[in-house]
């Protein structure tokens, strides 16, 4: 039996990565110890008993708040189904969703015809259905100093890296090398001999931190050089949650 702590549930358009533009039900779980200084969901970091509420309040809440409710993972899908959402894609994010075992919830969702996706920092083991799309956004050298797990990197269907400066790209390169996930096109450019495949596998996305102009320019330039992809947090440009 797994207990999930849920900060919010809402229906919107996925604004990041390969599923950008896909109507999605977002389940944001509570708690994250990683400490990224630019994190856009800091209200999910702490799990304080005084912020626990019942599920009705979560469905009513607007804006960022540290309140959350507790639910058994087998009860979460029925709760979502009651909301009358039309989206068939469920994105589990946080906070850090891989603090929780997501096998039961994702399996029930797939059994009911949903597709699922997890957004994770790569600092915890990814526990989910084999068809869940896993987005790893590896948090290299963050405040808590937590290592990126090979299990998460090797499970990733896409790697989505938030960047603001060249150092962040260099850190990603080192991690991809360590995990043997090097972009064949980069090798081709470097050595003019390795056979190129058209796309990196897993796909690599660069995501400018906080829509900064210089970060966006660097991400565009690097994506073109490497044949990587750009992820611009579409929801922040179109003003949806
Ligand atoms: C809030 S995190 C939650 C999931 C998980 N803890 C993680 O970091 O992947 C969701 C996504 O937003 C990205 N993100 C958070 N703050 C951001 C910011 N200010 N600018 C760009 N991306 C950001 C993260 O890198 C991650 O890909
Ligand atoms: N629309 C929308 N797309 C998103 N993709 C990843 C998000 C996240 O916070 O994990 C997010 C989010 O918060 N909103
Ligand atoms: S790992 Fe994710 S939720 Fe945690 S601080 Fe970093 S961006 Fe925020
Ligand atoms: Mg977000």
Rounded radius of gyration (Å): 18 Å
For the report, how would you describe the main beta sheet?
Answer: 9 strands, mixed
Number of domains: 1
Q: List bound small molecules.
A: S-adenosylmethionine, ligand 2KA, iron/sulfur cluster, magnesium ion
Q: How would you sum up the global shape?
A: globular
| Top CATH class | Alpha Beta
Assembly category: single chain
Q: Unreliable segments (pLDDT under 50, ≥5 consecutive)? A: none
Number of discrete helical segments: 8
CATH homologous superfamily grouping: Aldolase class I
Which fold name corresponds to the CATH topology?
A: TIM Barrel
> How many E strands?
9
| Physical arrangement of strands within the biggest beta sheet | 3-1-2-4-5-6-7-8-9
Architecture, CATH level 2? Answer: Alpha-Beta Barrel
Helix content: 25-40%
What's the overall average pLDDT, rounded?
Answer: 93
Beta content comes to: 15-25%
Please give a quick description of this structure:
Homodimer. The protein is of the alpha/beta class.
Q: Could you walk me through the main structural features you see in this protein, from its secondary elements to its overall organization?
A:
There is one protein chain. The protein has 241 residues and is of the alpha/beta class. The protein is 29% helix and 21% strand. It contains 8 helices and 9 strands. It has a 9-stranded mixed sheet with strand order 3-1-2-4-5-6-7-8-9. Helix 4 links the parallel strand 6 and strand 7. It is globular, with a radius of gyration of 18 Å. It starts with a strand and ends with a helix. 33% of the residues are buried. Bound molecules: S-adenosylmethionine, the ligand Nc1nc2[nH]cc(C(=O)O)c2c(=O)[nH]1, iron/sulfur cluster and magnesium ion. Iron/sulfur cluster binds next to loops. Magnesium ion (MG) binds next to loops. Homodimer.
